[in-house]
Automatic annotation (TrEMBL):
Annotated keywords: Hydrolase
Pfam family, one: Lactamase_B_2
Name this protein carries in UniProt: MBL fold metallo-hydrolase
GO terms for MF: hydrolase activity; RNA endonuclease activity
InterPro entries named among the record's database cross-references: MBL, Metallo-B-lactamas, RibonucZ/Hydroxyglut_hydro
Chain ranges of the Metallo-beta-lactamase domain: 14-199
């Protein structure tokens, strides 16, 4: 018997976390936080006894809704092995600093020596359970996971982008259960169409505008469509350069982005806003340079374009609700055609959508015959071995 625990991200956006339990192995795939939530709802719904019984934790990438609860997990008694890519390890401390609780971070920091590194494409044999990996197309070093027992395979996509012009995504294997990134529900608008709309908006505000974005992933997608003259926060430069890994990005994208980053101007707090598009992180205005840049741009009347998820209660969401910022989604998750393609490639298995509201899943149901919309965070699914 294989038990799949839906510990976070089901019927909701945030605190993404999936448990896989076989007869003698227990692993956790991601341990995110939920921006906008407080108290216990901020973290995955898994009890302390189950945490202490875990053999291993696998982290797909360093965004807060996938890694932000790592120090919390350690504080609850986790003693297992920790697996992630080198890129994820390099970026996780900053994410944890922004989204972890100070008491947890001080008492249970992420120690690099405790992490076991793997490369996308590697398979980790835990004895009776093998975790295969592949490039996600979402960020540099980001991966999906395929958990294989003797007779069953469960694929957890984490965050994937099948049609990125920057990042490479490896095809998901066929499986018995697909836990799929449904962040955008049944959104029918393609990534290329949205990128064109964003490019047009930026061209109309080329004399100065602010583009808040996560440090990894979408920042490079934005750079690929920016005009030749733009600025980045000076502290972002090294991290952006580190993401230009030859085995993660398309060769033409690497060439273009290296040239554009070399030409980009540096901006620091205390300086006037530049007379060109400015990229700062993070995308919600809660942390990083954006926490300073968004209020400054708003006060100065500098146009602001938001391009990602806007959790309620965040500065970015408030500005948008008040009509003081524009929003055009830059797809860094699958839209409808991508979801259908992934599901068909995986053999049209039973599907659970993660990182999506119940309403979004209901809209998606007619397009994915195998979609199960009745499962929410806190539920378990049992699969019998064949």
């Amino acid at each position: 018997m294989i038990r799949v625990g839906l510990h976070g991200g089901f019927g909701e956006k945030g605190r993404t976390s999936v448990g896989i339990e076989t007869g003698d192995r227990r692993v956790l795939l991601d341990v995110g936080i939920k921006v906008g939530a407080t108290g216990r709802d901020y973290y995955p719904l898994i009890d302390d006894e189950a945490i202490r019984a875990l053999d291993a934790l696998f982290i797909s990438h360093a965004h807060e809704d996938h890694v932000g609860g790592l120090s919390w997990l350690l504080s609850r008694g986790f003693k297992g092995r920790i697996f992630m890519t080198a890129e994820t390890l390099a970026e996780s401390p900053e994410t944890l600093a922004h989204y972890g609780e100070r008491a947890h971070l001080e008492a249970f920091p992420l120690v690099a020596e405790a992490v076991e590194l793997f490369r996308p494409g590697d398979a980790i044999d835990l004895g009776g359970l093998t975790i295969a990996t592949g490039r996600s197309g979402h960020v540099a070093g980001g991966v999906w996971f395929a958990a294989k027992t003797n007779s069953r395979r469960i694929v957890y996509s984490a965050d994937v982008v099948p049609d990125s012009n920057v990042f490479i995504m490896d095809p998901l294997p066929q499986c018995d259960l697909l836990i799929l990134d449904a962040s955008y529900g049944a959104d029918p608008v393609s990534g290329s169409a949205r990128a064109s709309a964003i490019r047009q908006w930026i061209e109309e505000h080329a004399g100065g505008c602010l583009l808040p974005t996560p440090l990894s992933g979408r920042s490079l997608e934005l750079m690929a469509i920016l005009p030749d003259r733009f600025a980045v926060h000076a502290r972002m430069r090294a991290a952006l350069e580190a993401q230009l890994a030859a085995d993660m990005l398309f060769p033409d994208a690497i060439k273009l982005l290296r040239w554009r980053l070399a030409q980009a101007e540096d901006w620091r707090e205390g300086q006037p806003l530049p007379s060109c598009p400015l990229i700062t992180d993070d995308g919600m205005g809660r942390a990083g340079p954006s926490a300073t840049a968004i209020p400054l741009a708003d006060a100065k009347g500098c146009p602001i374009l938001l391009t990602g998820h806007l959790p309620e209660g965040t500065p970015a969401h408030r500005l948008y609700e008040q009509g003081r910022a524009d929003w055009i989604r830059l797809p860094t998750h699958p839209t409808l055609s991508g979801l259908i393609g992934i599901w068909e490639q995986a053999g049209k298995p039973s599907v659970l959508g993660h990182s999506c509201t119940p309403g979004g899943l209901e809209e998606l149901r007619p397009h994915l015959a195998g979609l199960r919309g009745d499962r929410v965070t806190g539920d378990f699914i049992d699969l019998k071995e064949k």
